[in-house]
Amino acid sequence: MMKKRTVLIIPAIILCIIISIFFRLFFYHNIVTLGDGYIDSETGLPYLLEMDCYYHLRMTKDIASYGHPGDTLQDGKAWDSMSYAPEGRSADLYKPLLAYITIAVKELISVFRPVSLAQTAYWLSAFMSALLVIPVFLLTYEMCGLAGAVAASVLSTLNYCFYSRSLPGFYDTDGVILLFSCFLYYFGIKLIKGWQEKNKRSMILNGAGFVVSLAALYNCWLTYYVFPILFFGALILFILLNRINGSEKKSFFSIPLLLSAFVCIIILILKENLISETLAIFTRIFTKETGVFPNIYSSITELQKLSFFGGQLSDLFEVHVIPDSNINIINSSGGVVLFLFAAVMCVILIVRMVRKDIRPEYILLLFWYALTLWLSLGGFRFILLFSVPAAILAGNLTATIFSVLNKRNILIRYAAKCIIMVSLLLPSFYNAYAYSTEPPFSPYGDIADGLLKIRENTPENTILANWWDLGYFLEEKSGRKTLFDGGSQSDKRAYFVSRALATTDEDLSANIFNMLCGSGDKGVDLCLSTLGETEETVMFTVSLLSDSKAEAGEKLLKKGLSEERVHEITGLLFPENVPPAKFVLTPELPWIYRWFSLIGFGIGEGEDKHKNFIADVILEPLDFSKNSRTAFETEYGYYVIIEKNGDGYYACTSETEEPSGKQPLCIEKLIIVDDNGCEEYVQNNELSAADDPDPEKRAIPWTAVVQYDEQESTLSLISPSLRDSVFGRMLYLDGKGLTRYKAEPEYYNGVNGILVYSIN
């Protein structure tokens, strides 16, 4: 019987891989049918799915072209001049395994047909991620047999979190990290068993596999050391428990001890500051605390704290319809049945060990499960790591239940097995299907044309300013350096970019961008080192940038600084010969603008003033008539009514399509922006006693902004702080009233395109 099952291993693995690839190809088929807005004209394939993908693609191109990540060398080390302009940043720590694999696959495919690196990168993740089936299957099969291995393999590759991050176009390290971490664990467990069985051939082969997997992980990404540390910890506990129980002779422990020491030494050599850096990362992620500047980690969606589940049974299955604010650990990792199965299996493994059935794979799985579950509480990003041990544990319980059912009659046995398998696998199958039929919106299509125009019509030394979210894409398509991207998420840069956008002081805003484009952080660093790293110094630096160079110099002299130091500081805060700078306003910024206020006014007295840096509703497109009454229904259950009133316009909110005297929100001003300019109409509305679920919104004197176009008019309700900010004026008022920001409409490509402003 055992030999018969062994023969089925290869066909079962191949079937699981085919299932995994099938859903990913189904996703590709559906996204292609969405049309030109999703297709990259330079590759002929859909755009990559996330911003980080474009960073890995650029590093891959650099390695293929120059032999190292980054586009240049500085002091003999790899340097990325495109990121964190104008200084650039080190690329020496970039882990190149993904790039090496892509280049090798590209060369192999090119033997049969011409293919570019970008095209190879598009497909690589989907196929490599499907290979995760192999180590998960083998590891689970070693523990519980065929049925459990099949269940674990399917669950590990089709759960919502991993599936959404391993589709065609998701060119990132997620799948590669999990693939080699699972191989590391499989070969490590087999190595220990080989020693137990005194099988030298097995020890040599699996030892080689272990070392190769460890080397591959080291070249995957900076978090590689989490996996060998888990293995090392499991080995130590395995040794201690066996010695306490006296179940093995001391000679048995020579290989586990040597392996543990090897793993520990290698990690400490390759990662000198491992403990301090790990603690620093966890502190920033879980406490949101940092130094003088606000912690930018608080703005990263993937690092928002999660609950176990959303509170409704349907949430545990239909995760594709859950908004981002309600994504939870259970539905993202595979559903409630998988979660319960994994938790029950943890208890069973603990009971087995209490009964002196102590195995290294038991301890490893418990460590793996517990640590990644804890990490998952810190954000969606970590559920990916949790989903695999949860799948393996669920597969083990499935096999355990099946072994009990084998004692029943054939009808009960097969009926129960089918029910269990369907209940366990259906959520992952269903969600993979649903996610594929409803591909996520691509923010890239409509902005790519504008970025290509920037590449063609601007000097090569032009620097682009934007929030970090789309920085990598801006670099890839425009060929220009950026101030701020996903690899330059320094709290300092985040603070000053946010301050420049949230402030109502245009001179301060433009001076900040000119400082960053001309001298980077050097001026701020010099102020901090000279006057002390305190919030007071930061606010004093902001006040310097609000003035002219001469006025800033006078303020510094009053601080008792030497003329030489004052000249040095002002020269950096107000640099000369600044490269051309453009602010690129991309379509996603209206949905993340609140961070500009929260981070930019996270220091100083402006925090309370700008806490209502919000918009209540943005409707686009809409049918607006300038000569009659128009009522717009909002998703919040009330109407915004605008009508001609003599030489001006009247605006109010109402619970019905007719003005009722009961205003859910009070409109203080109406601004209509069209090709002829920007007209402001003050309203005399008073807030009524209309019921509203959010009293804070009722207290705000809102401004209604209509950006009028005969084809694509838009309506927005915005707070005064947002309206008067530099960002608000660029976004809603087409730059009207700004003198140091000049709109460049030649780059505009519709409501989902980019708005570009040159900065003077």
SS-based structural class? Answer: alpha+beta
Total DSSP helices: 31
Total number of domains:
3
Main-sheet strand order equals 5-4-6-16-15
Unreliable spans are: 314-325
**N- to C-terminal distance:** 79 Å
Question: How many strands, what sense, and barrel or not for the largest sheet?
Answer: 5 strands, mixed
Helix-residue proportion: 40-55%
Share of residues in strands: 5-15%
Average pLDDT, rounded to a whole number, is 85
What coarse outline follows from CA principal-axis ratios?
A: globular
Global Rg: 29 Å
Number of separate strands: 16
Describe this structure in words.
It is a single chain. Helix 3 packs across helix 20 and helix 17 packs antiparallel against helix 18. The relative contact order is 0.08. About 2% of the residues have low confidence. This protein folds into three domains: 306 residues, no CATH class; 141 residues, Pyruvate Kinase, Chain: A, domain 1 (3-Layer(aba) Sandwich); 102 residues, no CATH class. The longest helix has 28 residues. A hairpin with a 5-residue loop joins strand 8 and strand 9. The protein contains 31 helices and 16 strands. The chain is an alpha+beta fold and 760 residues long.
Summarize the structure.
This protein is of the alpha+beta class. The chain is built from 31 helices and 16 strands. The strands form four sheets. A five-stranded mixed beta sheet has the order 5-4-6-16-15. It has a five-stranded mixed beta sheet with strand order 7-14-13-11-12. Strands 1-2-3 form a three-stranded antiparallel beta sheet, with no helix packed on it.
